[in-house]
Amino acid sequence: METQQQVKDLVRQKYSEIALQDKETNQSSCCGSGCCSTEVYNIMADDYNELEGYNPDADLGLGCGLPTQFAKIKEGDVVIDLGSGAGNDAFVARHETGETGKVIGIDFTPAMIERARINNEVRGFNNVEFRQGDIEKMPVTANTADVIVSNCVLNLVPNKNEVFKEIYRVLKPGGHFSISDIVLEGELPAEIKEAAEMYAGCVAGAIQKGAYLELIESNGFTNLTIQKDKAIVIPDDILSNYLSAEQNADFKQSGTGIRSITVYAEKPVAEQAACCAPGCCN
Could you please report the per-residue DSSP string of 202-216? Predict the structure, then answer.
């Protein structure tokens, strides 16, 4: 695969195009990657229709889960949505946190930020804002968020470890995240891993499930929980763009699994400073 900067440039270009597409176009492909499938169903995203605060016109069909459903957002919370797109999860989070809370969406694609801001202006929310920036270096001060959510985004980022470091920095002590993402069980064929379209489509950039969970724990998070785990099946007419019939058959028999997981973890509450006054400590 290309360098990290080349990957970022690829993702920015592809998602700038996706920002101008409608949901139906994106849903018939793998995360809007353009590798369109003749099978008419949503390959990765879950159904938001039952969630309060859902706005269909802010939903581009790019997710792979429902992180806001599991995020335990309370009234008055400060919530950050990583890779906020057109604002879908941010608006659902805003319903949960209410008028006394705040929601910050972060996306590094200018076209997505523009679309999200238009959607927000239509709704007149004064406690939702969208900031352009890289989630490997968030434009947010430390200890800001009570909750962080993200939907099918970290798999697109070359340096996932840096993102988890930033999540830890930006969360308040005792804060938590709920993130939906694509992970692997087994190795993808090289033809898929090297395909730029499949990278932008959320699959080729995914890492092993065990490695993903280890990144979370190694960055100091506690109470790690998998809230949801589902299989992702890529249709044959998409795979045929990258694999021969024989390779496709071998891939299906290999046991490799592409999965969407929703993961929850907490930033520990900071330990109180030791009390050294006379008579204070045993």
Answer: TSTT--BHHHHHHHH
